[in-house]
């Protein structure tokens, strides 16, 4: 499917961007899961126009209705890959749907990732990776384990079958959906029921210790907790980050990134991490992306 504008993130920034872009008569699609939206668990007491506390899920529900009124397509799937095209971008979803868009708005928030292992940071670049798409090639013919709790982990394990000779998978939520379990097993991926508790190795990963004290020998550990975070997803695009922390996307006052056609808004651009700030930036991003699309169409 082809769109004018694709928005990643169903939080306050993404929804506001979608409302403005849709009302400008663009063909807009927004990706995200309502159950994982930052608004779904927020409680707001300092938001303009409300005298009393308002639940974030109420704002989310109202925002969804506004998106529909603006004729924005809502797709409750995570994006696992973005590829630049000659004119625009191709986005691939967790269910392998392919969407193209002239402009892209990044509004997926920030990933508050907790370490899975105690010594995890000591092994980053020495066998521990957070990006299957970036580092799979280095494990050609090797043994790896994928640890995660969502769609990006499942996709990552499947993707690694093109490279690694042996793949183990540990789902860190309570239960792996039966259809996903079957799909992984059909690709020869070995699903672990015992939790990995420790990284084995001195200067590089040699394996993981499981909760029954047994050792599983692996060369690489891919940790994919939750939906693919912004840094992992954006790494191949060359997007410039905040030079002080490298945790946020750098934008100008029009919410433009250094990559033509890509805009960003909300928590992903840095503090203050407030709904009001996210909404304001979403408005600007939606309008800026709309202007960009109009320019591209005029010049085509």
From TrEMBL:
<dbReference type="InterPro" id="IPR023753">
    <property type="entry name" value="FAD/NAD-binding_dom"/>
</dbReference>
<dbReference type="InterPro" id="IPR036188">
    <property type="entry name" value="FAD/NAD-bd_sf"/>
</dbReference>
<dbReference type="GO" id="GO:0016491">
    <property type="term" value="F:oxidoreductase activity"/>
</dbReference>
<dbReference type="InterPro" id="IPR050097">
    <property type="entry name" value="Ferredoxin-NADP_redctase_2"/>
</dbReference>
<keyword id="KW-0285">Flavoprotein</keyword>
<protein>
    <submittedName>
        <fullName>Thioredoxin reductase</fullName>
    </submittedName>
</protein>
<keyword id="KW-0560">Oxidoreductase</keyword>
<dbReference type="Pfam" id="PF07992">
    <property type="entry name" value="Pyr_redox_2"/>
</dbReference>
<feature type="domain" description="FAD/NAD(P)-binding">
    <location>
        <begin position="3"/>
        <end position="282"/>
    </location>
</feature>
